[in-house]
Automatic annotation (TrEMBL):
Organism phylogeny: Bacteria, Pseudomonadati, Bacteroidota, Flavobacteriia, Flavobacteriales
Protein's UniProt name: Riboflavin biosynthesis protein
Annotated Riboflavin kinase domain residues: 178-303
Coiled-coil spans in chain: none
Keyword hit for Transmembrane: no
């Protein structure tokens, strides 16, 4: 018996996948699972994997993900899924035959009565089994299969890879449209070089605990956050501070209308818009002028936000 995941007592409607980003395409599938479970008076369930199969099988240690596992869990639960099962993906798991996977995991552990899954889903050792085999197994093990058609999937035209590429290009507009929410990062404020205050722009330097979290392209961004339960805005610079000939990557945010010691505090910054590339300025005064211009631009942006 597999002890990596809990046994679900109530029968469920299940979907399976990595769901990195939990983007609008994923959300549509999860919504179908929730609705179908309500209709059949069953639990709605998701089987997802962490670490990412590509980290384990292809040893892609430098793959970056849209969501940390904590973010993924929170978003999926917010969508109304009753049972979220995170399987600690391993080589051993990947070697299960289709029969073993269905019997040991889906039936004995997850108590599956219905599976809602994309037309191109593959499973079992070397991903040899397809939805046709899944339907065959359904007859034997008494579950039904609802296939999400190619047309339904293509209609959304969104993928985790497209979002990763948009973030690498600093394309926040596309990223946020595909995610159905702003891209965000959460980290703890660290001590920096102590230069920010001297420049008139103190910046909270965030350390992100999850090394696999995707950091957007270097540059300057408008962000939103919350502090003491209140919405605040800021401008974030992601980069190496080339004006000061630094090389280490920093994620630092100047918050508007705030003057407090923030060291050790946790912030989640939501990316709203990219302003410009990070530049190497000839003088510190040129950098300060650029930050003043960023500030004016951001203030106009925020004013227009509250109008809509
Ligand atoms: C809105 C904003 C824009 C920035 N743009 C640049 C830039 O284009 N080039 C650069 O070298 N540093 C840029 N910086 C980073 C400053 O150089 C940085 O805040 C300063 O080095 C302070 O670092 P410290 O927090 O470690 O003291 C920017 C910072 C902010 C807040
Ligand atoms: N409006 C603000 N935005 C960001 N940080 C602020 C603000 N006001 C005060 N701070 C504090 O100042 C620190 C940043 O000052 P800075 O001179 O840039 O130092 P450091 O190099 O240590 O980041 C932040 O970590 C925070 O504790």
């Amino acid at each position: 018996m597999d002890n990596n995941i809990p046994s679900l007592t109530k029968p469920c409607v299940l979907t399976v996948g990595t769901f990195d980003g939990v983007h609008i395409g994923h959300q549509k599938i999860l919504q179908r699972v929730v609705n179908e479970a309500k209709k059949l008076n069953l639990d709605s369930a998701v089987l997802t994997f962490f670490p990412h199969p590509r980290m384990v099988l292809q040893k892609e240690m430098n793959i970056r993900l849209i969501n940390t596992i904590g973010e993924r869990e929170k978003i999926i639960k917010t969508l109304g899924i009753n049972q979220l099962v995170v399987y600690p993906f391993s080589k051993e798991f990947s070697r299960l035959t289709a029969q073993e996977y269905i019997e040991e995991i889906l039936i004995k552990k997850l108590n599956v009565k219905k599976i809602i899954i994309g037309y191109d889903h593959r499973f079992g050792r070397n991903r040899t089994a397809s939805i046709t085999e899944l339907k065959e197994f359904g007859k034997k093990y008494h579950f039904t299969v609802e296939e999400i058609s190619k047309q339904d999937i293509d209609e959304v035209a969104v993928s985790s890879t497209k979002i990763r590429n948009a973030l690498k290009e600093g394309n926040i507009e596309t990223t946020n449209k595909y995610l159905g929410r702003p891209y965000s990062l959460s980290g703890v404020v660290q001590q920096g070089k102590g230069l920010g205050k001297k420049l008139g722009f103190p910046t909270a330097n965030l350390a992100i605990p999850e090394s696999y979290k995707l950091i957007p392209k270097h540059g300057v961004y408008i962000v939103e956050s919350t502090y003491n339960g209140k919405k605040i805005f800021g401008m974030t610079n992601i980069g190496t501070n080339p004006t000061f000939n630094e090389t280490k990557e920093n994620i630092e945010t100047y918050f508007f209308n705030l003057d407090e010691d923030l060291y050790g505090k946790t912030f989640r910054i939501k990316f709203l818009k990219r302003i410009r590339d990070e530049k190497k300025f000839a003088t510190v005064d040129d950098l300060i002028n650029a930050m003043e211009a960023d500030k004016l631009y951001t203030q106009t942006f925020i004013k227009n936000l509250s109008k809509v």
